[in-house]
Amino acid sequence: MTDIIQLLPDHVANQIAAGEVVQRPASVVKELLENAIDASATEVKLIIKDAGKTLVQVIDNGKGMSFTDARLSFERHATSKIKSAEDLFQLNTKGFRGEALASIAAIAHVELKTKRSEDELGTAIEIEGSKVKSQEVSVTPTGTSVAVKNLFFNIPARRNFLKSDTVELRHITDEFHRVALAHPNIAFAFYHNGSELFHLPSENYRQRVVHIFGNKTNEKLVPVEEETEVLKISGFVGKPEYSKKTRSEQFFFVNQRFIKSPYLNHAISAAFEGLLKDGYHPSYFLNLTVDPKTIDINIHPTKTEIKFDDEHTLYAILRSAVKHSLGQFNIAPVLDFEHQSQLNTPYSYKNKSAASPSIEVDRSFNPFADDNKAKHTSQYTSFKKAPMASWESLYVGLESKGNNSENDFSEVTFESDSKTESLFGNTSVETSKTTFQLQQKYIISTLKSGMLIIDQNRAHQRVLYENFLKHITIKEATSQQLLFPLQLHFTPNETQIISNLKTDLEHTGFVFSKVSDEDITITGVPVGVPESEVSIILEQLISDVETDVPDANFSATDLLAKSMAKSLAIKNGQALSHTEQEHLVNSLFACKEPNVSPTNRPTFITLGVDDIEKKFM
Ligand code: ADP
Ligand code: MG
């Protein structure tokens, strides 16, 4: 038999490498921006068409390439950045694998123009799918321009896999943010389909953060500075009251390279411990500088994961530095009473301008709750006493063992006890009840053939979801006028999301008087939506739009209805009166699709008498 192993032709090898390096237009953006920075550019322009599907172009004023280098730069493993394996541990450039241009050229049409300052004339090269179409001398300014057109033209599967323009543009914007934040001293401009999205002059770090995330960011930044032998930290964390439901403002840069590190992220969360509400994430923009010898960047082709020699030490330093800053700026609950009370401001109010006073209503407050509690406790005890006595008689003389077997029973007892502590007014209807609540999470009801166990949160989401959908589609909703307009601050990205959904939101009952770059003013809210929930609803909505990755068949209406249902649904852990339980059960079964939540999870399960009988066998 003949030998069967052969070396892959270069263009095939390049395509395979491209699979790792280039996932989407944003990957091209990252690689080209990094090359511009490695070329010591001071001005970098990013030009995008159709979310990068048609064009990604980066123009820099860096050092450019010679005629020969220009051609060589597209070869695989062609790099000017390292010469030997040792250099891998002395890296001060973004690139070093020499793969990016070769990979990109394997799966797109690439036009490169470049000139060094010492040369009179530059070079222009066109490559399509690894094939050089032309290379000629060209009149071009000093620096480099790389235009990548028709990405994945020769890999239809990859092209079809791309998401909607909105999603791809968001990925590109994320990459742009990361590079721009890591290099505040470099000026950047970013254009999409002819309009300028960002124009960032050379500036300091604080200015850069504020330029990218909006003017309001300035007041929320707390500086973090620390210098030790192994690690230098500089940058900012966001004050706890500005924490977000998304992780969209979490940035670690190690030696000016954006990295993802769940471990270090945990160090920050640990520093914020006790200061954040559940489900909220701190913002941070932190630059770590370490000796390049102590890290390994080469563990992932996109280089966003790195390995540290001594992670534990970094963790400890980072946590204490952040803690220290929070304490120093009176953000952590220490000594300072004024700040303490500020900390206690409900999160829903955090974005509100100080000028608008408002009335807070505790919806769960019931002046009669105590009375009821007394009444019900007695009702329950008398109800329970009788069976308890007869059960107990079974265990006479079996002191400890008896207690043990009684556990199940006492658990049931406990459940009803905690229910009577509900702040909702339980009424005397209780005695004839057909439903009860388990663990303040499930509603149990009997069926002819067995029992029904309903997840209260999911069930309520379903009810609200269908309700909102109805309102949005028939475009009639009643809104309640707010006494004082509610002003909320968001980043430009976030207000963009809200303004895209504005019409739909209005159909649910929201009334906007102003939607500008960073502020949203609301004068009316849907009936039944407490004012204090408004900012939570909108934040949830933004977070859902950002993370649910809406693709081609994404419906804004649907997402909005889902998101609002999620925000407003009864939560687990909430005690419900009997009337509320029944109302929920009835509304659920009046729904079009009662058996699943808006996110397609079961809202209830049934347990047949057969199943129960089986358990007793
Ligand atoms: P790497 O960045 O890992 O070296 P690339 O494929 O991204 O690999 O680039 C190959 C080489 O092409 C670089 O090492 C550099 O010498 C040259 N190069 C790429 N982009 C530029 C640019 N914008 N300006 C100057 N030289 C560049
Ligand atoms: Mg590179």
TrEMBL record:
Pfam family, one: DNA_mis_repair
GO cellular component terms attached to this protein's record: mismatch repair complex
SMART domains noted in UniProt: DNA_mis_repair (SM01340), MutL_C (SM00853)
InterPro entries xref list: DNA_mismatch_repair_CS, DNA_mismatch_repair_MutL, DNA_mismatch_S5_2-like, MutL/Mlh/PMS, MutL/Mlh/Pms-like, MutL_C
A GO MF term: ATP binding
UniProt keyword Nuclease present: yes
GO BP terms: mismatch repair
Residue ranges occupied by any MutL C-terminal dimerisation domain in the UniProt entry: 434-576
Domain of life where this protein originates: Bacteria
Keywords: DNA damage, DNA repair, Endonuclease, Hydrolase, Nuclease
Domain annotation DNA mismatch repair protein S5: ranges: 209-327
PANTHER family reported for this sequence: DNA MISMATCH REPAIR PROTEIN MLH, PMS, MUTL (PTHR10073), DNA MISMATCH REPAIR PROTEIN MLH1 (PTHR10073:SF12)
Function: This protein is involved in the repair of mismatches in DNA. It is required for dam-dependent methyl-directed DNA mismatch repair. May act as a 'molecular matchmaker', a protein that promotes the formation of a stable complex between two or more DNA-binding proteins in an ATP-dependent manner without itself being part of a final effector complex.
Family: Belongs to the DNA mismatch repair MutL/HexB family.
Name the UniProt record assigns to this protein: DNA mismatch repair protein MutL
Species of provenance: Winogradskyella luteola
